[in-house]
Amino acid sequence: MKTRTHHLTLGWQIFIGLALGIVLGIIFYHNSIAINVMQGIGTMFINLIQMIVLPIIVSCLTVGIASMGNIKKLGRVGGKTLLYFEVMTTIAIALGLIIGNLTHPGSFINIHALHGTDVSQYISTAKVSQHHGILGTLMGIIPTNIFQSLSNGNIMSVIFFSVFFGLGTAAIGEKGKVVVDFLNAVTQVMFKVTNWIMKVSPIGVCALIGVTVAQLGLSVLAPLSYFVLIVYATMILFIIVFMGLAAKIFGFNIWRLLYVIKNEVILAFSTASSEAALPKNMDRLHKFGVSQSIVSFVIPTGYTFNLDGSAIYQSLAALFLVQAYNIHLSIGQQITLLVVLMITSRGMAGVPGASFVVLLATISSVGVPMTGLTFIAGIDRLIDMGRTGVNVIGNSLATVIIGQSEHEFNQKQSDTYIKQLKSAHH
């Protein structure tokens, strides 16, 4: 029996944890003791991940920028990355609006028959975030105290500091080598710790899914299942068609990439946390053939600026609520909605429950009452899993594309790595 379990890959273990979590959730439906225990285990797992994310970003990004060596190259890579993010996010929002108009998910809902979930925690966050807007976000990127930014988990401020720290390290030449060597060692240590933490990920996944099912029950799905189905179908369409096309334009196959990062996608999906997949994902993409400097820059930046899954969900959810309340939106109003979503989704990344907060800030502009959101708050966690998975795929794809465009993607290394993965499976 022992030899059999030895062959179970991490992906399968997480998948079993996922299935077990659903079963436990059904068994302990509304059992407050079991919910608290599972919540505790799930929180400990997410905390373990968050513990290692920032040291990895600081060490990888500083070394990556130092090895880029100059501001000119950084500017070019940064410009390409942000342009790519903007294009893909806009396509994702537009696709959500088109599918929403074609399928009319909100027309089948009796809004008065549904029982809402409390969303007060998001409303205050949305108000604060709305006041900040784009300018506030930009001002917030520059840290006054880097240690405070690290303790608050403010990823954008940490990236900002790391970029300058990396450029400074490169600028002092030979003396900076000590810093680079030290941070390289830190990176190796953190990846080692990541491997240890990943061994308990199936337990963390099981607990997190168990809590969701135990709190909501499967009954919450029935009236909203059509909406959930459409959101997932749209996300799959986006991955296969639009991401597939982007990959093809840059001369590689999306299925190869999905094969390489499948464990990270399953982990992100089942924990509904992009951070859970970040350390392993960076390691994978480097092994897949993308240079360390590109991986270190694109992935952390993508966590704030490239949330394709969230963009699809926000546009679909906004239309869903508009239709449920029988509000008619003209083409012009929908284009306005697209622009509002593009702006608000930039300003609120990094806010807890960001996708939900963006929706709160957006739907009021099209006349949907705040209470409308309580109806989809119940299924938000289920959709959050899907959109997190799509976000991870989107960032991985962006990394390979930017690597290709900078001629820093090693095709030979990529082929060798895929062969290794396949032989390890067999």
UniProtKB/TrEMBL annotation:
GO BP annotations, alphabetical order: dicarboxylic acid transport
Coiled coil: none
GO cellular component: plasma membrane
Residues annotated as transmembrane: 12-32, 44-69, 81-100, 155-173, 200-218, 224-247, 288-305, 325-344, 356-379
Superkingdom as given in the UniProt entry: Bacteria
Membrane topology: Multi-pass membrane protein
MF terms in GO: symporter activity
Gene3D superfamilies: Sodium:dicarboxylate symporter (1.10.3860.10)
Keywords from the named record: Cell membrane, Membrane, Symport, Transmembrane, Transmembrane helix, Transport
Compartments in which it is found: Cell membrane
Protein name (database record): Proton glutamate symport protein
